[in-house]
Write a structure and sequence with these properties.
Distance between the termini: 25 Å
Number of domains: 2
Order of helices and strands: HHHHHHHHHHHHEEEEHHHEH
Largest sheet: 3 strands, mixed
Shape: elongated
Number of strands: 5
Number of helices: 16
C-alpha cells in the first residue's frame, strides 16, 4: 500500500517520532520546531527543558519505544527528541486555541502541511507522551484560560477545524467517549473515536433488485451496472444535520443512499491513513472497521472513470482531483489492500 501511494504516507515538512526524522523534506522544520518548543517553555509558570527531559525519560521513553517496529531501538532517537516532539505537539494545540500569529512565519506558512503530517500513521509518538507533557504543563501553568482545559478537547479542536468530511469525530465528545479515547496510544485513534460503520448493505436485497442476474453476485456491482439494474444512487434527503460519511443505506426499494464525500488531496491523506491504522489495529477475527468497510464499498462501486462520473452526478462524490481516473485509481489501490471476502462481509 505504501509503495503505491508514498505521497500519502510520508511527511512533507515535519517529522514526529523516529521513522522520518532523517528525511530531507523535514530537515528545514527542525530549527523552527525547537523555536516553537522554546516558546512553550517560556509560557508563564511553565518548566524548562531539563524538567521535561527528566519527566519523559523517567515515565515515557522506555514504554514509548516499545510501540515502534524495526531497528528503532538501535537508532539515535533519544528521550530529548521524544520530549521535543511531544512539546511541539502540545504547543501547536495551544496555539490553535489562542493565536497562530505567535508562531514564526515559517510555521504559519506551513501550518496546513503540518496539519496533514500529524495525521500520518507512522509519523507519530504515543498519545500518552503528549498527555503526560500536557498534564505537567497544566499543573504549572499560570494562565487561567487553561485551568480546566482537557487535552482531548484541544486535539478535537485542532483536527476538526476543517468542516465536512474532516469532522468525523464529534465536535464535543461526550464524557463516556473521552476516557476510552485517552486509553489509545495513537492520535489517529482519537481522530477516529466514535466512528462506526452503519452501512445496511445486503447482497440478498441486491439480488431482489437485480432480478436478471441468474446467480447471486459475489460482490457489489459497479455504479454504472447498478444503474442498469434500476438501482438509484443519491445522497441523504434530510440535511437538517450532517450525515456521517459511513452512514450508507441500501433500501429494499432499490435506493442506495451514500453521504457526500469531497475528495481532494487532503481527504486522500486522511482516509488512507485511517484505513492503514485500522489494518494495523485489526486482529484476524475482528469486525471490519468503518473506514475499511467504506473503502471496500467504494472500491466495488468504482471500476472506471465512468463509475466516478455516475457518483458525481448523484452528488455522492465532489471531485477536486485532476480527473475521474485519479479518483478511481485511489479507491482501487486501497481496495486491493482490504483483504476481505465480500461474501462474508454483510
Amino acid at each position: 500500500m505504501r509503495e503505491a501511494n508514498r505521497s500519502l504516507f510520508e511527511p512533507r515538512v515535519v517529522s514526529i517520532g523516529p521513522y522520518h526524522r532523517k528525511n530531507k523534506s523535514t530537515q528545514d522544520m527542525e530549527a523552527h520546531k525547537k523555536r516553537l518548543v522554546q516558546a512553550f517553555f517560556d509560557r508563564q509558570g511553565n518548566a524548562n527543558h531539563e524538567f521535561y527531559v527528566e519527566e519523559v525519560t523517567a515515565h515515557c521513553f522506555a514504554q514509548a519505544m516499545q510501540w515502534y517496529n524495526g531497528n528503532v531501538g538501535d537508532s539515535d532517537y533519544t528521550a530529548d527528541m521524544l520530549m521535543l516532539d511531544g512539546c511541539f505537539i502540545v504547543e501547536l494545540l495551544l496555539l490553535q486555541c489562542e493565536d497562530k500569529a505567535r508562531a514564526d512565519n515559517y510555521i504559519r506558512i506551513m501550518w496546513n502541511s503540518i496539519y496533514y503530517d500529524l495525521l500520518l500513521v507512522d509519523n507519530q509518538i504515543p498519545f500518552f507522551v503528549v498527555e503526560r507533557i500536557f498534564r505537567r504543563f497544566r499543573s504549572r501553568n499560570e494562565n487561567p484560560a487553561f485551568d480546566n482545559t482537557q487535552l482531548l478537547h484541544l486535539v478535537n479542536t485542532f483536527f476538526n477545524r476543517r468542516k465536512g468530511q474532516f469532522s468525523w469525530a464529534p465536535a464535543n465528545p461526550s464524557p463516556d467517549v473521552l476516557p476510552a479515547a485517552a486509553a489509545n496510544q495513537h492520535r489517529l485513534a482519537v481522530r477516529n473515536m466514535g466512528t462506526e460503520a452503519t452501512a445496511t448493505l445486503n447482497c440478498s436485497q441486491c439480488v431482489d433488485i437485480c432480478g436478471r442476474v441468474s446467480t447471486m453476485p459475489r460482490g457489489i456491482p459497479a455504479a454504472n451496472e447498478l444503474q442498469d439494474y434500476g438501482v438509484t444512487l443519491h445522497v441523504p434527503v434530510d440535511t437538517s444535520e450532517q450525515s456521517e460519511i459511513f452512514d450508507v443505506k441500501f433500501e429494499g426499494n432499490g435506493a442506495m443512499t451514500i453521504p457526500r464525500f469531497e475528495i481532494n488531496f487532503g481527504s486522500k491523506i486522511l482516509l488512507a491513513n485511517l484505513f492503514a491504522y485500522e489494518q494495523i489495529e485489526r486482529q484476524p477475527c475482528d469486525k471490519l472497521g468503518a473506514v475499511t468497510s467504506y473503502i471496500a464499498l467504494m472500491n466495488a462501486l468504482i471500476n472506471t472513470a465512468d463509475d466516478v462520473m455516475v457518483l458525481q452526478r448523484a452528488g455522492i462524490l465532489d471531485n477536486l482531483l485532476s480527473s475521474e481516473k485519479e479518483v478511481a485509481s485511489f479507491f482501487n489501490e486501497l481496495g486491493r489492500c482490504t483483504m476481505l471476502d465480500m461474501r462474508e462481509h454483510r
